[in-house]
């Protein structure tokens, strides 16, 4: 599904970004890959983006690569006030 | 008011460990072996008269003015071509020499216009030399054969050649030329273009551009080196001819590319008469390009907006207001938005064109004033992967060398960069080294000029398919590991051997073999092998790369792959080697250093580090948010989603420079207060509610940090035409928001940066005035800075090898979009063209063209110069085609210097996995013949016209 304006909506893009990160770390040993993805998201994703990620995961994580789903458990929950 | 005058030593400095001692006019002087007698004399304080020599080019010995006498030797040798020797006794001013010099000078003057305007203005060495040698009269008169008179007694003078005024910036008057060949040598040696020559012989000899063409039509790149070298008025800046000689000057730093050239701004009152490259400038060593040397006219262009403006809706015309009203309006709006939508609903964008001090203030405003970390910078769209990749592998987000380092390189690998256009002064230094015999490897989809240009030819050109950088670098690593060409001792000492082995195992996997990579990249396996062997075994090997590396889905991966290669071959930590990003904008390095990223405080310290936040919390008196903020594309997403409403943008035109213009436009349109702080009503301003006029680099004090981490001073040479330097505007805005900022001068801002950032601890304006410039880290351990990084060990401890698997971009060609578009720039224009389009540089590039291979053009019935439609999945635009074999079949190329082209309507939103740096270098497109502009271009043009309406008021201030 693509926005008619010719770009992805926020959520589509978030899924895409998360998967892209996963594909880089998938070349590494599993443990390193899981912590790599989680660490990257913790370091660079603003709380709003992390909240959306958790929402997507809570809905079943459709479209997310398995590595993202696994790493999501180590992603920092945003504080209520920030999200 | 002072005038900066650099000493001309006559011939270049000699490099030798051995010295010789000689006596000149009774003064003893010791110089390095190989130094000319002329230079030795100048170092001893004795100026030998000369016309055909300067210390930028090799001596030629043609003018015969610099003759000296040497005890025990016959004749009167030229001091410029005579090397100093031990025990030599030289006389420079005997009666015999004076007589000869007067005779020589008299002959010169007999063919020099009596009413030479340059002589009269004091801009001609001829007049000065005539005085120096005591020439009183010209006995020969000027009646005989000469080059001066167009016609005499009704007969045309066959030796006379008309002035060449074709170049917009300088004039060539052959009648004043003495054919000393300094210009020819400057073009060859300093610039490396070889556009000039001496044609004819004897009295017929003449300087000619190209094949006896006007300068503009020749291959001349208008760098100005010849004008600078000319000892007569034959080559002069038109600005000097028009305005007269400068009265005072100051050393400052160019505001164009990341080379960061030093210039002497020569002034008449508040008017720039000319910009002369500064020899003591360590980035450029006295050289320049057409932009820095000549294209500063935008600073006084009529399009500059000098009064603040406000409007309620973006469909309203602009209303001029006082500064106070503008600041009050912004403060009220931002406070309202934060109250209504939350603290994180506003943010700021810092500029890579502004100074370090200004950038620091914008991020401080966001962090201290807005109390969030929603700050980003234009580096997001260019070199953010460099920051990420080099920090991960080496431990610091910056290039490893100074530019001087290239003089010691034996092999240079240029990846995804086009230095002769993008970083011309560095390119000249590189070409000089290549002419001395260093080998060149080029990885680029296009056959850039460096691949083959006069006296330079790449040993290997790897014309890879756009998007396959990581694959090709992995294949190079495959060859280096499989053939045992890695530097085991270096790796064991400086890196983690286990990590290396893991990486080695990875690169040896079959999909990384040259044969497998040939399939995806189109580069023959044997070429990959040859390049890998040369890089690993050719001596000092240095990598220089540009946006062709970073602006990809795998930008960060590729930067790490480059770092892997350098570590594996031991090419890190000494002069002549290293990993060197060629930075796009003047202060892109500095804007990154200054904490412009939403996850980092100045000096690349993560926002989650308690100790770092504590430093700023103590100083600024607020609690800082420990969560990363939004990046530019995320700000736009959040705006579309309704949670981001206010943005302060200093000196960046995101609508034109960021990918997928429609997304940017919709995002901006969804905000309630967009503040654009710029010189011109740029494209982004079409969506702005407040416009704050900006100031140019000529109007403020500060510092820029170039691609070598060099902190250079920017010095104010005129009052801001808009009233305030940019740092003052940000400060006043902060004050309106209730912040207690009281900086009286940018040096005080630098003092705060130094006090809070370990890598800048030693930096101060006093130090910069004393040293000229310093490269960070500059602190107790390195009091005068760090030219080469990672000497003896990596900043992060051990260098880190990382698996850099090739992942093909999702932007794929197919039946609808069968061609790959890649983008770049040209020499005469800069970035989105806001500055260069407002100078005479447009004579070289008045529009963006689509380069297309003859095969692809013929298939589509496209002729050179035809209008074509360029369509991608994101959008479409039209421009004119240029048919060339510079691009491979299947690849098309364009620049993005003109807003009407709207190249970013076509580029997609795909971006680097780690940093969201957009994938500008790969877009699947179709090209078809077209009649004219697309609907979007027409609509946009109409919108631009509408949104640029200004209602002028009577002077309010």
UniProtKB/TrEMBL annotation, chain A:
<protein>
    <submittedName>
        <fullName>Formate dehydrogenase subunit delta</fullName>
    </submittedName>
</protein>
<dbReference type="InterPro" id="IPR021074">
    <property type="entry name" value="Formate_DH_dsu"/>
</dbReference>
<dbReference type="Pfam" id="PF11390">
    <property type="entry name" value="FdsD"/>
</dbReference>
UniProtKB/TrEMBL annotation, chain B:
<feature type="domain" description="2Fe-2S ferredoxin-type">
    <location>
        <begin position="18"/>
        <end position="96"/>
    </location>
</feature>
<dbReference type="InterPro" id="IPR017900">
    <property type="entry name" value="4Fe4S_Fe_S_CS"/>
</dbReference>
<dbReference type="InterPro" id="IPR041924">
    <property type="entry name" value="Formate_Dh-H_N"/>
</dbReference>
<feature type="domain" description="4Fe-4S ferredoxin-type">
    <location>
        <begin position="212"/>
        <end position="240"/>
    </location>
</feature>
<comment type="similarity">
    <text>Belongs to the complex I 75 kDa subunit family.</text>
</comment>
<feature type="domain" description="4Fe-4S ferredoxin-type">
    <location>
        <begin position="168"/>
        <end position="199"/>
    </location>
</feature>
<dbReference type="GO" id="GO:0008863">
    <property type="term" value="F:formate dehydrogenase (NAD+) activity"/>
</dbReference>
<keyword id="KW-0479">Metal-binding</keyword>
<dbReference type="InterPro" id="IPR006657">
    <property type="entry name" value="MoPterin_dinucl-bd_dom"/>
</dbReference>
<feature type="domain" description="4Fe-4S Mo/W bis-MGD-type">
    <location>
        <begin position="247"/>
        <end position="303"/>
    </location>
</feature>
<dbReference type="InterPro" id="IPR050123">
    <property type="entry name" value="Prok_molybdopt-oxidoreductase"/>
</dbReference>
<dbReference type="InterPro" id="IPR009010">
    <property type="entry name" value="Asp_de-COase-like_dom_sf"/>
</dbReference>
<keyword id="KW-0001">2Fe-2S</keyword>
<dbReference type="InterPro" id="IPR036010">
    <property type="entry name" value="2Fe-2S_ferredoxin-like_sf"/>
</dbReference>
<dbReference type="Pfam" id="PF01568">
    <property type="entry name" value="Molydop_binding"/>
</dbReference>
<dbReference type="InterPro" id="IPR006656">
    <property type="entry name" value="Mopterin_OxRdtase"/>
</dbReference>
<dbReference type="InterPro" id="IPR017896">
    <property type="entry name" value="4Fe4S_Fe-S-bd"/>
</dbReference>
<dbReference type="Pfam" id="PF10588">
    <property type="entry name" value="NADH-G_4Fe-4S_3"/>
</dbReference>
<dbReference type="InterPro" id="IPR001041">
    <property type="entry name" value="2Fe-2S_ferredoxin-type"/>
</dbReference>
<dbReference type="Pfam" id="PF04879">
    <property type="entry name" value="Molybdop_Fe4S4"/>
</dbReference>
<dbReference type="InterPro" id="IPR006655">
    <property type="entry name" value="Mopterin_OxRdtase_prok_CS"/>
</dbReference>
<dbReference type="Pfam" id="PF13510">
    <property type="entry name" value="Fer2_4"/>
</dbReference>
């Amino acid at each position: 599904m693509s926005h008619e304006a010719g770009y992805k909506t926020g959520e589509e893009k978030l899924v895409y970004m998360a998967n892209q990160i996963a594909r880089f770390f998938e070349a590494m040993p599993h443990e390193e890959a899981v912590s790599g993805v989680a660490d990257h998201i913790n370091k660079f994703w603003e709380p709003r983006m992390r909240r959306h990620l958790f929402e997507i995961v809570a809905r079943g994580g459709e479209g997310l690569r398995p590595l993202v789903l696994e790493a999501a458990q180590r992603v920092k929950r945003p504080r209520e006030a920030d999200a | 008011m002072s005038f900066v005058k650099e000493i001309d030593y006559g011939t270049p400095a000699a490099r030798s460990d051995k010295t010789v001692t000689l006596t000149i006019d009774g003064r003893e002087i010791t110089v390095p072996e190989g130094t000319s007698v002329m230079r030795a004399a100048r170092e001893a304080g004795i100026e030998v008269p000369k016309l055909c020599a300067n210390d930028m080019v090799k001596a030629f010995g043609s003018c015969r003015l610099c003759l000296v006498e040497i005890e025990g030797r016959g004749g009167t040798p030229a001091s410029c071509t005579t090397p100093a020797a031990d025990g030599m006794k030289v006389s420079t001013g005997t009666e015999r020499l004076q007589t000869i010099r007067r005779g020589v000078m008299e002959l010169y003057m007999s063919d020099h216009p009596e009413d030479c305007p340059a002589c009269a203005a004091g801009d001609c060495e001829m007049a000065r030399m005539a005085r120096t040698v005591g020439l009183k009269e010209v006995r020969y008169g000027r009646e005989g054969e000469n080059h001066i008179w167009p016609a005499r007694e009704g007969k045309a003078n066959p030796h006379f050649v008309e002035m060449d005024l074709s170049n917009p910036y300088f004039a060539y008057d052959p009648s004043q030329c003495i054919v000393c060949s300094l210009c020819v040598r400057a073009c060859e040696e300093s610039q490396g273009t070889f556009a000039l020559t001496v044609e004819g012989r004897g009295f017929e000899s003449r300087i000619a551009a190209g094949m006896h063409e006007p300068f503009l039509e020749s291959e001349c790149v208008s760098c100005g080196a010849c004008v600078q070298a000319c000892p007569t008025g034959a080559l002069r800046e038109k600005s000097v001819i028009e305005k007269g000689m400068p009265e005072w000057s100051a050393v400052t730093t160019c505001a164009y590319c990341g080379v960061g050239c030093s210039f002497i701004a020569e002034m008449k009152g508040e008017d720039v008469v000319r910009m002369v490259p500064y020899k003591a400038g360590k980035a450029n060593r006295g050289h320049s390009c057409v932009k820095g040397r000549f294209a500063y006219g935008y600073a006084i262009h009529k399009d500059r907006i000098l009064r603040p403006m406000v409007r309620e809706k973006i469909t309203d015309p602009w209303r001029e207001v006082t500064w106070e009203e503008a600041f009050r309006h912004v403060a009220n709006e931002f406070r309202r938005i934060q109250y209504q939508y939350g603290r994180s609903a506003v943010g700021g964008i810092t500029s890579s064109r502004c100074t370090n001090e200004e950038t620091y203030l914008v991020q401080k405003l966001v962090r201290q004033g807005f109390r969030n970390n929603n700050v980003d910078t234009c580096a997001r769209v260019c070199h953010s992967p460099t920051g990420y990749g080099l920090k991960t592998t080496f431990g610091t987000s910056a290039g490893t060398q100074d530019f001087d380092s290239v003089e010691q390189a034996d092999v240079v690998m240029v990846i995804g960069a086009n230095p002769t256009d993008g970083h011309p002064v560095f390119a000249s230094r590189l070409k000089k080294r290549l002419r001395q015999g260093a080998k060149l490897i080029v990885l680029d989809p296009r056959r850039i000029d460096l691949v083959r240009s006069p006296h330079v030819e790449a040993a290997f050109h790897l014309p890879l398919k756009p998007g396959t950088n990581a694959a090709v670098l992995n294949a190079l690593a495959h060859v280096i590991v499989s053939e045992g060409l890695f530097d085991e001792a270096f790796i064991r000492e400086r890196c983690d051997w286990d990590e290396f082995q893991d990486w080695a195992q990875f690169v040896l996997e079959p999909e990384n073999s040259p044969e497998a990579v040939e399939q995806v990249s189109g580069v023959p396996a044997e070429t990959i092998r040859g390049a890998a062997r040369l890089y690993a075994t050719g001596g000092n090997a240095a990598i220089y790369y540009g946006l062709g590396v970073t602006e990809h889905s795998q930008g960060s991966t590729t930067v790490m792959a480059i770092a892997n290669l350098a570590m594996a071959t031991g090419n890190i930590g000494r002069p002549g080697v290293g990993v060197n990003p060629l930075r796009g904008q003047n202060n892109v390095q500095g804007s990154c250093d200054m904490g412009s990223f939403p996850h980092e405080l100045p000096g690349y310290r993560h926002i989650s580090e308690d100790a770092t936040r504590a430093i700023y919390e103590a100083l600024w008196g607020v609690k800082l948010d420990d969560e990363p903020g939004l990046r530019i594309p995320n700000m736009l997403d959040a705006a579309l989603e309704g949670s981001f409403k206010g943005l302060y943008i200093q000196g960046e035109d995101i609508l034109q420079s960021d990918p997928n213009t429609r997304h940017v436009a919709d995002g901006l349109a969804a905000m309630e207060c967009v503040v654009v702080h710029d010189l011109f009503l740029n494209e982004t301003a079409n969506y702005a509610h407040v416009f704050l006029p900006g100031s140019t680099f000529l109007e403020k004090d500060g510092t820029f940090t170039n691609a070598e981490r060099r902190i250079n001073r920017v010095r104010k040479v005129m009052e801001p035409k808009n009233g305030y330097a940019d740092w003052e505007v940000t400060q006043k805005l902060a004050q309106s928001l209730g912040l207690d900022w009281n900086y009286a001068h940018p040096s005080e801002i630098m003092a705060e940066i130094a006090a809070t950032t370990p890598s800048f601890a030693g930096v101060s304006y006093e130090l910069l005035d004393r040293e000229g410039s310093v490269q960070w880290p500059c602190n107790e351990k390195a009091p005068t800075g760090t030219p080469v990084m990672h000497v003896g060990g990596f900043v992060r401890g051990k260098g880190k090898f990382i698996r850099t698997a090739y992942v093909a971009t999702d932007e794929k060609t197919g039946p609808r979009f069968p061609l790959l578009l890649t983008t770049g720039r040209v020499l005469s224009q800069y970035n989105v063209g806001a500055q260069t389009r407002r100078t005479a540089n447009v004579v070289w590039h008045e529009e963006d063209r689509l380069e297309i291979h003859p095969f692809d053009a013929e298939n589509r019935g496209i002729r050179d110069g035809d209008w074509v439609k360029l369509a991608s999945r994101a959008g479409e635009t039209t421009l004119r085609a240029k048919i060339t074999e510079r691009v491979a079949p299947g690849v098309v190329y364009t620049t993005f210097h003109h807003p009407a082209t709207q190249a970013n309507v076509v580029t997609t939103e795909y971006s680097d996995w780690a940093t969201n740096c957009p994938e500008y270098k790969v877009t699947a497109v179709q090209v078809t013949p077209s009649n004219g502009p697309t609907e979007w271009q027409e609509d946009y043009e109409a919108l631009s016209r509408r949104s640029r309406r200004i209602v002028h008021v009577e002077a309010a201030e």
